[in-house]
């Protein structure tokens, strides 16, 4: 993580030189031989927006950065800087590519750019490409290993990264030796919106309908009694919403194939907006009466204690059960939950329950687990 700042600064300097060289050779009076109009213009425009959006959508490892931020970090700052960091580079780099296409043949970007870059800068340019690729894939490999473990496969972190590495190298060799590498990468980036667009929509919708209020300890509970266990460990609403969004997006694609929706619209690719909209709407409708969502929105009832008051002094100086637990009752279903203040304030799993009774936190004691009811 500490190397990312110097690497970012070095790559910024290198690509600033590329930007200057491209702008100097840009033909600002360039006009296509056959200007696009009507439906064709909108089809290309939407395809370009989809390509730009596929970048941040494909880089879902962003959470591995944010989890290192202090808990006191401003939510507005996180959203603002993330949006700025995702928007500006995408628009800038895509615009730079369009400028370069007016001066050189960008079918092979590396060869094309070398004709307008200074001779001394060629090795620096290649080194920047290599370092940038390594920097991106380092965190990607780390997150891919975590994802492989998260699906329930019992495997060491180092081995999970090796498995992901073998799969990635195999796909790269296929792109280089069997098919056109640039076409393969372009198609993969455009098709990522079919899956990741609806997935991100479900995630964002869940945050909105819960008002970003999550039961930290319950999220970490992988037992069948967890409120987040749902049905056999799968949230039906999320699965159905994701499936509906992917299906809607797949019908609207115009990349490797032309979907029926895209064909009816004259080739306009609406996979990204359609997939995200369908997934978000389906998920919001199916989760509107969920106990977890009602609790997060403050519509549940939190009673004063878990059960009968503890008799005598708590053992080994611990707070009694009624002091560190409370009962959450929603639509007749009750379960015990930790009170706010019964876990250390510095703990990343400190719950935020609407209406919970606050008590002084004791940072010297570990978080408590309350019995299930």
UniProtKB/TrEMBL annotation:
Subcellular location: Membrane
InterPro entries: Pur-cyt_permease, Pur-cyt_permease_Fcy2/21/22
Transmembrane spans: 37-57, 78-104, 124-148, 160-182, 188-209, 229-250, 270-287
Superkingdom in the source lineage: Bacteria
Keyword line: Membrane, Transmembrane, Transmembrane helix, Transport
Pfam families listed in its UniProt record: Transp_cyt_pur
Region (Disordered): 340-373
Single GO molecular function: transmembrane transporter activity
Family of this protein: Belongs to the purine-cytosine permease (2.A.39) family.
The name this protein goes by in its record: Purine/cytosine permease
Protein's organism: Streptomyces pristinaespiralis (strain ATCC 25486 / DSM 40338 / CBS 914.69 / JCM 4507 / KCC S-0507 / NBRC 13074 / NRRL 2958 / 5647)
Lineage, top ranks: Bacteria, Bacillati, Actinomycetota, Actinomycetes, Kitasatosporales
């Amino acid at each position: 993580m500490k190397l990312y700042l110097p690497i970012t600064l070095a790559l910024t300097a290198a690509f600033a030189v590329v930007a200057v060289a491209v702008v100097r050779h840009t033909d600002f009076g360039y006009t296509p031989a056959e200007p696009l109009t009507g439906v064709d213009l909108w089809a290309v425009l939407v395809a370009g927006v989809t390509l730009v959006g596929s970048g941040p959508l494909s880089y879902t490892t962003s959470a591995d950065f944010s989890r290192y931020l202090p808990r006191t970090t401003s939510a507005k700052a996180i959203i603002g800087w993330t949006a700025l960091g995702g928007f500006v580079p995408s628009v800038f780099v895509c615009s730079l590519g369009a400028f370069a296409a007016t001066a050189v043949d960008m079918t092979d970007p590396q060869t094309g750019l070398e004709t307008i870059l200074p001779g001394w800068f060629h090795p620096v340019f290649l080194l920047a490409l290599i370092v940038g690729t390594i920097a991106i894939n380092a965190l990607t490999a780390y997150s891919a290993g975590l994802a492989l473990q998260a699906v329930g496969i019992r495997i060491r972190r180092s081995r999970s990264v090796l498995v992901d590495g073998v799969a990635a190298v195999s796909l790269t060799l296929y792109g280089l030796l069997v098919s056109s590498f640039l076409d393969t990468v372009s198609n993969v980036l455009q098709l990522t919106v079919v899956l990741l667009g609806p997935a991100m929509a479900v995630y964002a919708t869940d945050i909105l309908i819960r008002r970003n209020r999550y039961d930290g300890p319950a999220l970490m509970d992988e037992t069948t009694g967890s409120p987040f266990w749902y049905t056999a460990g799968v949230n039906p609403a999320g699965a159905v919403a994701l499936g509906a969004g992917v299906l809607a997006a797949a019908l609207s694609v115009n990349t490797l194939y032309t979907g029926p929706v895209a064909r009816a619209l004259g080739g306009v690719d609406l996979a990204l907006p359609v997939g995200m909209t369908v997934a978000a709407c389906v998920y919001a409708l199916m989760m509107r009466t969920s106990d977890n969502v009602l609790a997060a929105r403050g519509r549940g009832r939190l009673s004063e204690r878990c059960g009968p008051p503890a008799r005598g002094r708590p053992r080994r100086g611990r707070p009694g059960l009624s002091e560190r637990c409370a009962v959450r009752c929603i639509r007749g279903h009750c379960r015990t939950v930790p009170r706010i203040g019964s876990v250390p304030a510095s703990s990343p799993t400190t719950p935020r329950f609407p209406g919970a009774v606050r008590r002084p936190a004791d940072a010297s004691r570990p978080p408590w687990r309350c019995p299930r009811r």
